[in-house]
Amino acid sequence: MGAEIAYTQKRYGTTSMMAAIFIGIFFILLGHKTQAKGLILGSIFSVLNFVLMGEILPLIVGPSRKKSSFISLGSIVFRHGLLAVPLILSLKMEWLDFTATVFGLFMVQIMIMGDHLLKRFHRSA
Amino acid sequence: MDIDTQILVKSAAFVGAGLAMGLGAVGAAIGEGYTAAEANGAVSRNPELSGDIFKNMLVGQAVAESASIFALVVAILMLFLGVPLNNLLNGAALLGAGLCMGFGAVGSGIGSGFPGGQACVGIARQPAVTPRLTTNMLIGSAVCQTPAIFSMVVALMLIFMGFDKAPLGPTWAALVGAGFSTGLAAIGSGYGGGLAAGASCEGISRQPESVGNVTTVMLVGQAVAQTPSIFGLLVSFILLFKRFPESYELQSAMALLGAGLCMGFGGIGPGVGNGMAAEGAVKWVARNVKRSGELMRIMLVGQAVSQSTAIYAMVVALVLIFVV
Q1: A interface toward B at CB cutoff 8 Å?
Q2: Domain chopping of chain B, boundaries
Q3: Which homologous superfamily does the CATH classification assign to the domain defined by B5-322?
Q4: pTM of the predicted model as reported, rounded to 2 decimal places
């Protein structure tokens, strides 16, 4: 179980960061530095959130129901608190673009969808 | 007076942010819980596939969490954006935005958990179709997020459109009503879309060769299930963009608030009902692919009849806005 989750984390985490850096460089070349920084910051936190989800998963499955509920609730509160950090920073700091940060926060989800839709396309072709 | 206005607008921002994130977390948590519960059953049925099942659960939960991240974005904006505090209408707009995003994320959060759970069960039943199940789960979950996206759009419009030139009465009621209209109507559509997506994962695992027909019927069913939330969006847009003549009579404000509540509550049942019709069609298409055309027609007729109550709600909402 652990190996499968670690592989999934590594795969989507790496793809998301590579996509964020690639799009970020493209933005910098176009002169949109604030968007590039926002996107990369949002993506870092998106990957962190995904990694934490996967790390906490085995902890939830093993112990008693009471302990599992406590860990699950704590995980949700902690992860959402973590995701709030780049949003607050981008609203407070002028060198970060808010819209790009929000887009970055969905980078893992976008990569998951893109990966599976691409596979589906290849299967049907 | 200025200090009172500032306190009221700030309070509305705090309450709005609390509603957005608090209600927004409810749906995603229930949806993720459903996925985990079904994953438990799947692992106990086929323990040697626990790795694949947990991987699918992780990916499914990551997508299902999107609705609560939308709510988080709206809540943080309300708390830290620094909306001008000199106009009471900004307070009404922030409260409306919080209600809209909070309610709007509930249905999508719960609904997107259904395909995740059913995909886990399906993997345990038919390990050979795991990639197809995961892709179908992701498409179904993504479509479930549409009503939450509608709610986020209305919430962002309420936060960013300026209402400085509009009169306080009855515009405050129109802004809160706009939040109720899309937010509440999105609950049924998100939940209903999830029912159809869940049934499609179950269907594919029973009859892997039916994947094409099942996905088509799922997408058509989900599209029709979104209609009540589109009606809600339409009423919200009218409430946001129509200029209402200045009036401080309570009944004119209540007519606009009532319009939003009418369309919002009126959209919940049809959204769920349409989803149930789509769920039934998808389920039986997988078992009897040859009859898929007939089953889709029955689904569409059933959805059209179920939709009629949302149309009645929209008509009454429009009467409240334009006639009363």
Answers
A1: 1, 3-5, 7-8, 12, 50, 53-54, 57, 60-61, 76, 80, 83-84, 87-88, 91-92, 98, 102, 105-106, 108-109, 112-113, 116-117, 119-120, 123
A2: 5-322
A3: lithium bound rotor ring of v- atpase (1.20.120.610)
A4: 0.91
